[in-house]
Amino acid sequence: MAQRTRFARIWLLTLLLAMALAMALNRFMDPWGLHDGPRIDGLNALKIRPERPLGELKLSRALRASPDALILGNSRADIGLDPADPALRALAARPFNMAEPGAALTSQVRYLETLLEAGHRPRLLVVGVELFDALNPPDGDREWYPRTDAWQRQRTVMAQSLITLAATADSVRTLYAQHDRFAATMRDDGFNPLYDYGAMAARDGYQALFRQRAADNVKRIRARHWPQDLHATADFVALRRLLDIAGEHRMRVEVMSYPYHMHILGALAREHMDREVSTWKQAVADTVAAAAARGVQVRAWDFSLPGADSAEAVPARDDRRTVTRGYWEGGHFKAALGARMLARALAPEAPPDDDFGRRLTPATAAADWAGETRRVLAARPDLQRDLDAAFGAPVATE
Questions:
Q1: Cα(365)–Cα(276) distance, rounded to whole angstroms?
Q2: Helical H runs in the chain?
Q3: What residue ranges do the domains of the chain occupy?
Q4: Which has the closest alpha carbon to 48: 169, 139, 218?
Q5: What's the rounded mean pLDDT across residues 148-154?
Q6: How confident is the model over 345-391, as pLDDT tens digits?
Q7: Are strands 69-72 and 95-97 parallel, antiparallel or unpaired?
Q8: Nearest in space to 179 (alpha carbons), one of 44, 30, 39, 38
Q9: 108: phi > 0 → left, psi -120 to 50 → alpha, else beta; which?
């Protein structure tokens, strides 16, 4: 019996020592960037992008950073809108990218509410709105339901950053990431530079990325169940709540649709979604116009239009050298294109000097985007071949 007791004590002490060492490692490496500690080049200066939902982690960072400008949206904004962009830094000293991959606008607005509850009031909101969220939305009742467990979740995340095996594994990944120029990282201001996508493009070629994403988007579009009442969906409830918050706290808001590549615009046109897309744009424009009429400082911008940028050619299948200018693939734009969005939306009012983006108002929402998309595609057999492949038609290899 005494031997068993001694063994149990040794086992318990060993377990406690291992846990203490793991906690010390996680506290020092701080892979999720949640603790104030030394940053040492070559050891832990760069922080990885964890393989877990990022919303609560970004909220933890934002609570420490007290941002005066926020970027809200999904993965498109996460990797495409850089808070360090000069147009944004000209207006804000501490801009932060709160956008979360896979997130709907509802969760983003709840994070904003948490920041305000903690006493942090951003002066500027750059908000990406997503057409794809309207393809299969859950039933809505036009009501806003605030989150009640925000602080409990924050305490949980902080504990997980110290005591979980996932955090320990990420501490090891953080060490390796210091010497890997293609590591998946996340900056302190919430931006995802997507270095790992660069490695994939160099290895597999951009055409593989574009065509896989195009096929995925076609599946989503074909599986759509368009809502009877867009204004009752969770996204529009969240947008109205966000604009109410902005009016109450005197925030400037720039709402923008994302710059879809012709792979997406063409798929929408082939599926004859002319009316649905125009209805969605009209709903966004009407919601923003109603808020502006109440005195909210808000404008809407339409970047989901056909043009030279959205029609960027996809490199050939065997091409591993060409680097695309504006898109990682058809669903996600690069920060270079995001910089043009920010410059257009944040600059003083000026007439457009090209076909990239325009004000979205109740008067402009009904523009014939589908007709223009079909005209662009008619002159671009390469893009038509890409869409044929996405829709499952036989395509000659290049």
A1: 12
A2: 2-29, 55-65, 75-80, 86-89, 105-117, 150-163, 165-177, 195-204, 206-222, 234-249, 262-270, 274-293, 335-346, 369-378, 381-390
A3: 31-390
A4: 169
A5: 89
A6: 998 765 555 678 899 999 999 888 999 999 999 999 999 999 999 99
A7: parallel
A8: 44
A9: alpha
pLDDT of 343 > 70? The answer is yes
Give me the percent of the chain exceeding a pLDDT of 70: 97
> Half-sphere exposure of residue 188, counting CA atoms within 13 Å on the CB side?
13
How far apart CA 13 and CA 362 sit, in angstroms, is: 68
Average pLDDT, the chain: 92
Rounded Cα distance, 26 and 160, in Å: 10
144: buried, middle or exposed (CB in 10 Å: 19+, 13-18, 0-12)?
middle
Distances in Å between the Cα of 371 and the Cα atoms of 154, 205, 269, 306, 338 are 48, 31, 8, 10, 25
Of 222, 314, 209, nearest in space to 267 by CA = 222
Joined together, the tokens standing for residue 302 give: 């339409």
Query: Is the distance from CB of 49 to CB of 195 less than 8 angstroms?
Result: no
Identify the three-state secondary structure at position 89: helix
Q: Using alpha carbons only, what angle is made at residue 104 by residues 201 and 293, rounded to the nearest 5 degrees?
A: 120
Q: What is the pLDDT of residue 9?
A: 81
Give me the half-sphere count of Cα atoms (radius 13 Å) on the Cβ side of residue 331.
20
Residue 7 DSSP one-character state: H
- pLDDT for position 148: 84
Question: For the whole model, what pTM was predicted?
Answer: 0.93
Stated as kind and residue range, the H or E segment containing 253 is strand 252-257
